[in-house]
Write a structure and sequence with these properties.
Layout (H helix, E strand, L loop, with lengths): L1 E2 L3 H6 L3 E5 L2 E6 L4 H10 L2 E4 L4 E6 L3 H5 L14 E8 L5 E9 L3 E6 L4 H11 L5 E4 L3 E7 L3 H6 L13 E6 L2 E6 L8 E7 L3 H10 L3 E2 L2 H10 L28 H4 L5 H10 L4 E7 L10 E4 L2 E12 L4 E8 L9 E6 L2 E8 L15
Parallel strand pairs: 1-3, 4-14
Antiparallel strand pairs: 2-3, 4-10, 5-8, 5-9, 6-7, 7-8, 10-13, 11-12, 12-13, 15-18, 15-20, 16-17, 16-19, 17-18, 19-20
Helix pairs in contact: 2-7
Length: 364
């Protein structure tokens, strides 16, 4: 198992470490998952996401080159801004979901830990000679999330308070350079902070001293589920298209006229005529969570499968996401989730289950 630059720091905080995506990662600290989840909703939680892949695309034509693999509008992204997108397979499935940032003279990418080697190979294969992909294994990545995140991080770098959602700035933190984006994976306001590995422990300590609560994978998963956000390997994979995954909004308007990205034929067909299945949310009755791979039934017929599910601490009730036929995807549709062979009543429900609280840019 690999370790992030913060592994010793996690152990010193009493973290329970578990294998995840090839790394030993903290699943929770002594206070527990529920307390860490609550800390993020009410204050600020600090997550180590250094297992994620970080890389830069450098050279003239980098944005145009990346568009061969994604339906996102990369060339239209303004400097100092970040965007979410998907990388595609030839067959129109999702190779990975990722974040990309325009830093003016280069593109900055954040890739999923379990897919970064696959992504880097796919990206490298389509680049022209003028563009190079430079992985950044010597960087750590921290996520500070929650309504108190702005106040806490601004004690170290006041300029981050002015960043809007998906805004990016290069600042000085813990005595070194840092790339800060106002984004995250919890549905709350917050930041993701890329720093040199050698500065990670100092920065983590400073953020906890300023009021952040260390949080692990358990709370990160319950938070993203309540926020209705996809997890690659569960809700997204190479068989699933962005249309099936209800990620149509990641397909740029200009890209829908060009159709020059990998997998475009399937995407265009599904946009025109509808997909065979759709990702939906489920409000689950009772207290029993329905985990991934739970069959979804309509009467005696199996009509889909849960891809993510668990108990929502903020809601005080179980929630889930999964795929069903389009005729069963309307909000309020009653279905059964077969938990350990027993039918648990559920209804299709809109996501996010807990409203997002991102800091949007003000409008004149």
């Amino acid at each position: 198992m690999l370790e992030t630059p913060l592994a010793d720091w996690h152990r010193a905080q009493g973290a329970r470490m578990v294998p995840f995506a090839g790394y030993m990662m903290p699943v929770h600290y002594p206070a527990g998952i529920i307390a860490e989840h609550k800390a993020c909703r009410e204050g600020a939680a600090l997550f180590d996401v250094s297992h994620m892949g970080q890389a830069e695309l450098r050279g003239e034509g980098a944005a145009a080159a990346l568009e061969a693999l994604t339906p996102a509008d990369v060339q239209g992204l303004k400097p100092g801004r970040q965007r979410y997108g998907v990388l595609m397979t030839e067959a129109g499935g999702i190779l990975d979901d990722f974040m990309f940032t325009n830093l003016g003279d280069r593109m900055f990418l954040v890739l999923n830990a379990s897919r970064k080697a696959v992504d880097e190979a796919a990206i490298g294969a389509i680049l022209p000679p003028s563009v190079t992909l430079a992985p950044m294994p010597d960087r750590a990545l921290l996520a500070l999330q929650g309504p108190a995140a702005e106040r806490i991080l601004a004690t170290l770098a006041p300029e981050v308070a002015a960043l809007p959602f998906m805004g990016v700035a290069e600042v000085t933190l813990a005595g070194g350079s840092a790339l800060v984006s106002r984004s995250g994976y919890t549905g709350e306001d917050g930041y993701e902070i890329s720093v040199p590995a050698e500065n990670a422990t100092k920065l983590a300590g400073a953020l906890v001293t300023a009021g952040a609560t260390p949080a692990g994978l358990g709370a990160r998963d319950s938070l993203r589920l309540e926020a209705g956000l996809c997890l690659y390997g569960n809700d997204l994979d190479e068989t699933t298209s962005p249309v099936e995954a209800a990620l149509n909004w990641t397909i740029g308007k200009r890209r829908r006229t060009e159709w020059n990205f990998r997998g475009a034929e399937r995407v265009r067909e599904e946009l025109d005529h509808g997909p065979k299945r759709l990702r939906v949310g489920f409000a689950v009755e009772g207290r029993q969570p329905a985990r991934a791979h739970t069959p979804i039934q309509s009467g005696a017929e199996v009509v889909g499968e849960v891809t993510s599910g668990g108990f929502g601490p903020t809601l005080g009730a179980p929630v889930a996401m999964g795929y069903v036929r389009p005729d069963l995807a309307t909000d309020g549709t009653a279905l059964d989730l077969m938990v350990r062979g027993k039918a648990v009543a559920a209804k299709v429900a809109p996501t996010p289950f807990v409203p997002h609280r991102y800091k949007r840019a003000s409008r004149a």
